[in-house]
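ok so i was messing around last nite and threw this chain in just to see what happens. nothing serious, just curious
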Amino acid sequence: MNRELGDDVLTTMQAMSKRRARRPPATPYLGEFEQLLLLAVLQCGDDPYTVPIRRLLSERAGRQVARGALHTSLDRLEAKGLVTSAMGEPLAIRGGRSRRYFRVTPAGVEALRAARAAVSTLSQGLEELLGR
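result:
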């Protein structure tokens, strides 16, 4: 009888595993800095490389970001599939080196929407305290 019970448990666990595998992937969690970074890339328009991204973060968000931290964060967003990057043409002004340009992917836009919706939902009823 023990063996039958074990087989039932195994069958149930296998069925649960298959159900989990069919679920669409959850929207990746975005930390505050990741949200700011995605927004800055979107704001850069046709010139989304690290210099204007870093300038926007400083001017509009008041965040001073080291170049290394910026590159590490952009690499992490790319690994998550939230941005893509491509190398531009070599530039004489950069000693023949190329710029790395970034684009927010549809998954990145969706992650921003989800993060914005979560903040909006959690903020409901706190307008008087938080303003607007």
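not much to say yet. The beta strands are 83-91, 97-104.
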